[in-house]
Amino acid sequence: MPIEKPEDKIRFYTEEDYNTTDITKIFYDVNGSGGVLVGNMRERVKQDLNSINKFIREAQDMRIPVKPFFNIDIDKVIFDLPNDEWGSHSYTHFIKAGLTKTGKMLKYPYHLFFRTIEYAWIESDGIVSSKKFDTIHGNLYYLENQTIGKAWLVMWKQHNAYKMELKLIDNILSLGKIEYSTPNHQYYETLYKSEDKK
C-alpha cells in the first residue's frame, strides 16, 4: 500500500517523528502505509532487522543441503525513497492494519516491509547485458506490545530463492520453516520445518 505522492512522505515530519520509537506515533496515510523512517525510529528498525540475522546464522549452522546465501546487510537496507525504477512501495516502511469487522485490533496490528539491494552490471566482451541482483526482502509482524511475533524473508541470489519463516514457539521467536527454490523448480522445496504445531 504505497503512499502515492512523494511529498506526503516528507511534509508531515516533525520533531516527534525524529525522536519517537513508538510504531503508533509515526505518520501513516489513509491506506495505512507509513512514510520514510527517520531518526530514532530508523535506528530501532535497524536493530530489529539485525536481530533477525541470528536466525539466519542458526540456519547456516544446520545440517541442511542448502545454506542461507547471506545475512541482512543493514547498510544495504533501502530506507529512503527509491527512484521510479523501483516504484514507490519498495522502501522500508511500516504498514498499519485495519480493524476487524467488530472494531477490534488484529493480533499483528503493524508490520514492517523491508528490502535490501545489491546490484552489479554483467559484462560480456565489453557489452553490458543485464543487472544481477542479490537481495533480501520480507515482512516483520509486530504484536500489540510492539515486539516481533512472526516474520518471513526471501533471499534472491542469481535467480535462486531462499525463504525463511519465523514464528512464536512457547512465546519465543523461532525458526518455523526454511524453503529453497531454483529457476528449474516451480515450487519451493522444504529444507526444514518446526515440529511445533502452534
UniProtKB/TrEMBL annotation:
Protein name: Uncharacterized protein
Organism: Brachyspira aalborgi
Organism superkingdom: Bacteria
